[in-house]
Amino acid sequence: MKNIKDYDLEALKQEFIQIGEKPYRAEQVFKWIYVEKVTNFDEMTNLSLELREKLKQMYGMYNFNIIKKQESSDGTKKYLFDVLDENAIETVLMSYHHGYTICVSSQIGCKMGCKFCASTGIQFIRSLTSGEIVEQILAVERDNDIRISNVVFMGIGEPLDNYENVINAIKIINNQKGINIGARHISISTSGLVPKIYQLAEENIQCTLSISLHATTDEKRSSMMPVNNRYNIQELLQACKDYIEKTNRRISFEYALAKDNNDNLEDAKRLVKLLKGMICHVNLIPINKIDNGKYIKSSNENIIKFRDYLNEHGIVATIRRELGSDIDAACGQLRRKNKIENGGSVYGK
């Protein structure tokens, strides 16, 4: 059965025309789902009983179930959702003074194999549909009776490896007649799929692009991120420069600091040289220790020194606030832990 949440508004109008309904009915359904947050067709009371029955026969609402939820002392909440096909994904809700930010997954598992990421130990199953991406927002809003103000595609999976579904999900999230989160409040993180960065530049959407850089030499980056063997630092940064020129949007570079690996003064100097002249921001991340991982967090002293060096040499850099450190903070940890606790079943049944 088709997931009605897979359609952006224009596609839903076309779908309704094909099934013999007026396009304005699609707008009504869209509002019920994304504004009123209903979970079944029976609640759509301005639709006729006949139309509601028709929709129930043709489409599913696919509301996620919560398998497990963890809450940190800092207010961060981490969800393990049942995506209704014997698989599970993680979603994280973070509270800031400016509102609520949700970190969504884009795939079940990940192909990228980054050595510092807990998702590396999770077998890639499939990409999420647009509706499954959007449902993470709806499910978290329902559970907390809140409105999400910022969305980051930084959960499990490589968003640009699920390009079409992610772009379509952004259209749904951004639509003023639906969830209505501004594009500038949506961030896409990529490990560096260069062709997709060029494609994204042509989309003319105002979302923020975040690049997982994490190293300043190809040798070191390839050891941390196998994707660098396909698209090296030079190719990646050229794509970033072209993206900035095309969109006039600042890029954010993610840099996870690992002790005795990429956190020394020479790395800072090389990073300044690589990024000089670009409209960018560097987000320094105290790395999360994962089970059987070889990387550990850099010292607070080194992290501060690294940040200060970048700022002193013209590269705007901040240190990401550590959230959820007491609830399996790294992407993939909760899913891996649940699998172990339930005898190999990620789903937990």
Detailed description of the structure:
The chain has helices at residues 9-18, 23-34, 49-58, 130-144, 163-174, 194-201, 218-224, 233-247, 265-275, 300-312, 333-341; strands at residues 2-3, 59-60, 65-71, 77-82, 88-96, 99-103, 107-108, 126-127, 150-153, 186-190, 208-212, 251-257, 280-286, 317-319. By secondary structure, it is an alpha/beta fold. Helix 9 (265-275) packs parallel to helix 10. The longest helix has 15 residues, at 130-144. It is elongated, with a radius of gyration of 21 Å.
Summarize the structure.
The protein has helices at 9-18, 23-34, 49-58, 130-144, 163-174, 194-201, 218-224, 233-247, 265-275, 300-312, 333-341, and strands at residues 2-3, 59-60, 65-71, 77-82, 88-96, 99-103, 107-108, 126-127, 150-153, 186-190, 208-212, 251-257, 280-286, 317-319. With 349 residues, the chain is α/β, with parallel strands linked by helices. Strand 3 and strand 4 form a beta hairpin.
Q: Proportion of β residues?
A: 15-25%
The pLDDT mean sits at: 92
| Number of alpha- plus pi-helical segments | 11
Number of strands: 14
Element pattern in H and E: EHHHEEEEEEEHEHEHEHHEHEHEH
Q: Catalogue the unreliable spans.
A: none
Q: Per the principal axes of the C-alpha atoms, what is the gross shape? A: elongated
Strand order, main sheet: write it out: 3-4-5-6-9-10-11-12-13-14
Biggest sheet features: 10 strands, mixed
User: What is the radius of gyration?
Assistant: 21 Å
Span of the ends, CA to CA: 24 Å
Which structural class is indicated by helix and strand composition?
alpha/beta
Percent of residues in helices comes to 25-40%
